[in-house]
Amino acid sequence: MAAFNTLINFIYAAHGEWYFGDSYCKFHNFFPVTAVFASIYSMTAIAVDRYMAIIHPLKPRLSASATKVVIFSIWALAIALAFPLCYYSTTRKIPKRTLCFVAWPRPSEDSFMYHIIVTVLVYLLPLVVMGVTYTIVGITLWGGEIPGDTSDNYHEQLRAKRKVVKMMIIVVLTFAFCWLPYHIYFIVTGLKKLLNKWKYIQQIYLSVMWLAMSSTMYNPIIYCCLNSRFRAGFKRAFRWCPFIKVSSCDELELQMTRFHPTRQSSMYTVSRVDSSVVAVYDTADGDQLCPAKHKSCPSLHSSINGYSSHSVKASVSSTLYGSTPAKDFP
């Protein structure tokens, strides 16, 4: 989206004229929507995967082939949902300018119905799935008993669980908050079509569109703040910057990932031999291998949080959903 649509959107919004031809008009309306839909469904698939890894840790995980099928299905569904925008996109020359828009056969009815379908399938349904799965995972992680004593290890695990829950809640709330105004805008303007002729409707549209598109930039910030492995990888990628230093703890975090390539979703499953109770927590999403600054990093082969490392199981465009809501053609 940044490479193919951002600059084009800016030029089109600033000049009010389409300079890029009919073919790129179709691509411009189709590609960013497909990418956004695929991103949302990927987040939903990750939520289901985390749910299965934590709530049902002993069930077999998806194979590489099954994972490829899921990825293919996500993109196929995203393409199918966005295809009407490509099919009906066209350009029209009017006095002094050219417009790029989606010419629905029945402009009022078809556009509104499409937005309703998109709201249900790309906002409400993923939000319900992520909300339910992360709520169950949060309750399990927050309230479950972790085998072990009440030493520092227990409290470190408790802090790790809370970070996992916080990250899950923040990701879901960010998605819900950023996309809600966008869907409300299309529903309201579909029901009250006179609002499309209001003087400042274009500015309102651009504002809600910016907010929705900005949702994609918040997740890396959330992960960097609450995920030690993501933060370590980020530091290594930008270690050439003079103000970014890679510590020994960061190197150890990345080495653990390299030496355990088969673990599933970075979920550590901890169990007692004499008990059927299994407690699962996500070290990757919150637990620090070096949680306290005054503590030294453990060696690579030392225990993790009091348990032997051998017990670790490898376990978005200004014409989204339609044409830019420009005023009626002069």
Annotation keywords:
330 residues, mainly alpha, Rhopdopsin 7-helix transmembrane proteins, two-stranded antiparallel sheet, two-stranded antiparallel ribbon, 8 helices, elongated, disordered C terminus
Describe the structure in your own words.
There is one protein chain. This protein is mainly alpha-helical and 330 residues long. The chain folds into two domains: 2-233, Up-down Bundle (Rhopdopsin 7-helix transmembrane proteins); 234-311, no CATH class. Helix content is 60%, strand content 7%. It contains eight helices and four strands. A two-stranded antiparallel ribbon has the order 1-2. It has a two-stranded antiparallel ribbon with strand order 3-4. A hairpin with a 2-residue loop joins strand 1 and strand 2. Helix 2 runs antiparallel to helix 3 (64-88) and helix 6 (201-226) crosses helix 7. The longest helix has 40 residues, at 152-191. The chain is elongated, with a radius of gyration of 24 Å. The two termini are 30 Å apart. 30% of the residues are buried. Mean pLDDT is 74; it is low at 259-319 and 321-330.
